[in-house]
């Protein structure tokens, strides 16, 4: 498993407990000892110690010895740093690395295509129609200009409603055309 994903899972697992969230909430206001937290939350000291250990593992709390007690503090900087790095717009897509992003399209195509590759019926659901359109657009070459007749000849291989599918391909910005309809191209 990827290091970023491991860190995200550890972070969310540590916070995926109501008592741990309460501990973080209390410590965000002021430092407390295990015994104080136990009394405030109505939990045993060993249960609070267990929760503190989980929060310490990810750096959200730290302990400092004061006399006979360890006093725990909330590490706001750690939380901010984690949020910036783990939940960054650039980081989140890495957690889906290795997932087959075409699985949905394949499922839709399996349901809506005949064995010869022709469309049985156009789906009424927008997302499914998009999958069909992505399938049809693959028949068009990139960097090639088509006449309307050529576009219709390609589309009719998949479905008899050439004007409807052509319109859908254009509205989904998969196919574009000159205003007068004299030339079409794959976007």
CATH topology of the largest domain, anyone? Answer: Arc Repressor Mutant, subunit A
Q: Mind telling me the CATH class of the largest domain?
A: Mainly Alpha
Number of domains: 2
Low-confidence stretches: none
Detailed description of the structure:
The protein is 51% helix and 12% strand. It is mainly alpha-helical. It has two domains: 3-96, Winged helix-like DNA-binding domain superfamily/Winged helix DNA-binding domain (Arc Repressor Mutant, subunit A, Orthogonal Bundle), CATH 1.10.10; 103-186, Orthogonal Bundle (Arc Repressor Mutant, subunit A). The strands form two sheets. It has a three-stranded antiparallel beta sheet. A three-stranded antiparallel beta sheet has the order 4-6-5. Strand 5 (175-177) and strand 6 form a beta hairpin. Helix 2 packs across helix 4, helix 3 crosses helix 4 (45-57) and helix 6 (103-112) crosses helix 7 (126-137). The longest helix is centred in the first third of the chain and has 13 residues, at 3-15. It is rod-shaped, with a radius of gyration of 29 Å. The two termini are 36 Å apart.
């Amino acid at each position: 498993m990827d290091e970023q994903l491991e860190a995200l899972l550890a972070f969310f697992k540590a916070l995926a407990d109501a008592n741990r969230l309460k501990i973080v909430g209390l410590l965000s206001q002021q430092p407390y000892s295990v015994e104080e937290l136990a009394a405030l939350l109505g939990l045993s000291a060993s249960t609070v110690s267990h929760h503190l250990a989980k929060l310490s593992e990810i750096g959200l709390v730290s302990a400092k010895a004061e006399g006979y007690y360890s006093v725990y503090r909330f590490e706001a900087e750690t939380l901010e740093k984690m949020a910036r790095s783990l939940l960054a717009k650039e980081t989140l897509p890495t957690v889906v690395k290795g997932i087959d992003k075409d699985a949905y399209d394949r499922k839709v195509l399996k349901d809506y295509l005949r064995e010869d590759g022709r469309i049985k019926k156009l789906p009424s659901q927008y997302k499914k129609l998009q999958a069909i359109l992505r399938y049809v657009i693959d028949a068009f070459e990139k960097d090639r200009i088509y006449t309307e007749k050529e576009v219709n000849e390609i589309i009719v291989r998949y479905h008899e409603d050439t004007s409807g599918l052509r319109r859908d391909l254009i509205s989904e910005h998969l196919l574009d055309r000159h205003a007068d309809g004299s030339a079409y191209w794959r976007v």
